[in-house]
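ok posting inputs for the LBFN2T5F job
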Amino acid sequence: MVQLRKVHGSENHFFLLDQTTLAQKLTDPELVALAQQLTNPATGILDGADGILVVDDSEHDNVLGQMRVINADGSEASMCGNGLRTVSRYLSEKYHTNQFKVQTLTADLQVSRQSDLAAQVPAFSVEISPVRFNPEAFPFQNLGDGALIDTPVPAFVSGLNFTAIAVPNPHLISFVTEDGINNDDLGNLGTKLNQPNEYFPDGVNVSFAQILGKNQLFVRTFERGVGFTNACGTGMSATSLAFAMTHANLADFDQLITVYNPGGMVKTRVHQTEDRYWIDLIGNATETHFIDVDEAELHAANVTDATTDVTETTEEAAYLKFVDSLPKVSSIAVKK
Ligand SMILES: N[C@@H](CCC[C@H](N)C(=O)O)C(=O)O
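and the output
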């Protein structure tokens, strides 16, 4: 028997698999098949998830472990902010340390345990970087000659300005009114840019943000490889950077920004030095279920109610109590 965990950051749900606990690690095709089977509510368990987080050892010096992110559709993401918080918690408890680095696809990132957000709501801060604006980093095309920053793109949505930031996974951001958060524009644009299209050949995560006040945002994201999500950590981080870059009177570098999302709330802090930007993403790292399963079922992508033994923790009730204590800033319902 091996143990999977169901985890979430701001209700952005994942299954966490530690390859080091297996007799034989899953191959890449097996990971793709497992992500597609397990995260699909119709074929998997526990209402599915937005992806799987694959933990492994790192061969890099001074790095505690490695995280890979497989989206629900089987595509691999270079980064996942909400997922990295839960992987940080897992590694922190496995190795009994509170501050360390985690290897991701393109960078070794600094993470640290923070004060709990509330009773039984553990929190971690994770570094979101490297930050890129050049079209090759996404890639994107047919959107002018260089970076896309606070620019009208009528072909996307008329009347809105867009900013493209890779952190390093690709994000497209627009600041909108409350109606813009609620209407069909985000779903339509996210769907269009994540099918074969002339702008983002590898797809893009699309976030619409409503400015609530000084250093305060509400962010809703349509994720590449997933669709609407309760929260996207890298999306909220990229949006916070776009906020500080394009609304200097309303957002501060190096200060905490509160980012509400359909699944709860995180804090971000955006930094700029002469040669780089980076963002701290701070939020919950919640473990909702432990799932015992035979290793053979993982290799066969056959993780079902019949092949698993599931134990629920008490952390979701604690998290929902924490969310209940937050100001109600949006009517967008949490996706189950
Ligand atoms: N939800 C994640 C981002 C996951 C990856 C994304 N779908 C992509 O393909 O880039 C987050 O919390 O950052």
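notes: The pocket of LBFN2T5F is lined by residues 12, 50, 69, 71, 77, 80-83, 169, 205, 223-226, 229, 232-234 (CB under 6 Å). The mean pLDDT is 97.
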